[in-house]
Design a protein that fits this description.
This protein is α/β, with parallel strands linked by helices. The chain has 2 domains: about 280 residues, LCP protein (Aminopeptidase, 3-Layer(aba) Sandwich); about 100 residues, Alpha-Beta Plaits, CATH 3.30.70.2390. The protein is built from 12 helices and 17 strands. The chain has a 6-stranded mixed β-sheet. Strands 14-13-17-15-16 form a 5-stranded mixed β-sheet, with helices on one face. Strand 15, helix 12 and strand 16 form a beta-alpha-beta unit. Helix 4 packs across helix 5 and helix 5 runs antiparallel to helix 6. The longest helix has 22 residues. The protein is globular, with a radius of gyration of 24 Å.
């Protein structure tokens, strides 16, 4: 199931290392001791700093590449585990189906809309709800900064798989892509065209993600060349102008130093599992909830609260009566998801079908208690939770599975 790839983490590595090394060079140039005598206070400070570096914690970092219209064109979750010298990355397609209460337009049901309409906090909440993990920090890099980074390092050589031609004069600013097939060095402007092109891939948005992976592999090779070292201060200045993050300068430096020191032995990266489809006339990427649970367990085990199968948690879930109904007309769907709930300790009292109606999206209904419904929704990675309280109902929660769970 898991594929080990060197992918979008490379741009993050480039960003963080550039900032950190630039900071380090600045520090060394400015804070040179005036005397050659041994400075014991400086030694003690270094020891203290090293202790902090050794004790840095594992974090989930949300990385966002945004366009001129503040759309999250690239979404990644990066988990750096310094204790085990491991990096985990999960790519989330921008068209991932994520309906939000109060946002009913077709385009508003895509996860990148959470960023454009509710900024980074909205996207952070969406990712936390979608994957049931805690996001500790974020990093945002816009396209203008990306272009300047590529130009500063002298471009990146990639193999363009086919002619890429696309014009959108209605975009703000207008988008024009014109790349010829073949191996070539892309400057900043052409690099943006390459990673933004999305209309000629057989597998849609996943094809675009693969192309981004190819580009960022080439970017890593370029960044790691010795000839880049003199350009690090310029990169640091560029990045500081175009990058937004809630990581402090000391945190960035600590993590970058730890990364350089450890040289992580494992970099595991994967795209969110699922497939493209339509709801009405709008195309979405529908998440495979079961495979997503497996990936979350594997890559983010220590961070996931709902996957805690302690005796107390299982006992609490046994008091929640659930009926699960197949509203997609897909054979065996309700039984498959009922097994997930049973494994989490929930009391599944009914499995059935919705008659006479087909649902595109899945819903969870609170029949007695909203908190119980939220627990069930979180276990099944369903975002639609609604109240349908009834004094005569025999279950606490009703789940209707839609086509997004196929």
């Amino acid at each position: 199931m898991k594929k080990t790839l060197k992918i979008i983490i490379f741009i993050v590595i480039g960003i963080i290392l550039s900032v950190s090394v630039g900071t380090y060079i600045f520090y060394k140039n400015i804070h040179v001791p005036a005397s050659h005598e041994k400075d014991t206070s400086a030694v003690n400070k270094n020891k203290s700093q090293n202790n902090k570096i050794e004790n840095i914690k594992r974090k989930n970092i949300l990385f966002v590449g945004s366009d001129e219209n503040n759309l999250s064109d690239t979404i990644l979750i990066i988990n750096y585990d310094p204790l085990n010298k491991k990096i985990n990355i999960l790519s989330i397609p921008r068209d991932t189906y994520y309906p939000r209460p109060g946002f009913n337009a077709p385009e508003e049901k895509k996860i990148n809309a959470a960023f454009s309409e509710e900024k980074i906090d909205g996207l952070k909440n969406a990712v936390e709800n979608l994957l049931n993990i805690k996001i500790d920090n974020y990093v945002i890099l816009n396209y203008e900064g990306f272009k300047k980074i590529i130009d500063t390092i002298g471009g990146v050589e990639v193999d363009v798989p086919f002619n890429m031609k696309y014009d959108d004069n209605s975009a703000n600013p207008p988008l024009h892509i014109d790349l010829k097939k073949g191996r070539q060095v892309l400057d900043g402007e052409k690099a943006i065209q390459f990673i933004r092109y999305r209309h000629g891939y057989v597998d849609g948005d996943l094809g675009r993600i693969k192309a981004q992976h190819q580009f960022l592999e080439a970017l890593l090779k370029k960044i790691l060349q010795p000839s880049i070292l003199p350009k690090v201060p310029s990169l640091a200045i560029t990045i500081s102008q175009y990058l937004k993050t809630d990581l402090s300068a000391s945190e960035i430096t600590q993590y970058a130093y730890q990364f350089i020191k450890d040289k992580p032995s494992t970099i595991d990266a994967i795209a969110l599992p699922g497939e493209g489809g339509y709801e009405g006339n709008t195309s979405y990427f529908f998440v495979d909830s079961i495979k997503t649970q497996e990936i979350v367990k594997e890559l983010f085990t220590d961070e996931v609260s709902s996957l805690n199968t302690s005796t107390t948690s299982l006992f609490e879930n046994t008091n929640i009566k659930v009926e699960i109904l197949n509203g997609a007309g897909i054979e065996g769907l309700a039984t498959k998801y009922a097994e997930i709930l049973k494994n989490e300790g929930f009391n599944v009292v009914k499995i059935g079908n919705v008659i006479g109606m087909t649902f595109n999206s899945s819903h969870v209904y609170a029949r007695t208690d909203e908190e119980k419904a939220k627990k069930v929704a979180k276990a099944l990675f369903i975002t639609n939770v609604e109240k349908d309280i009834s004094p005569d109902v025999k279950v606490d929660v009703t789940v209707i599975l839609g086509k997004d769970k196929k």
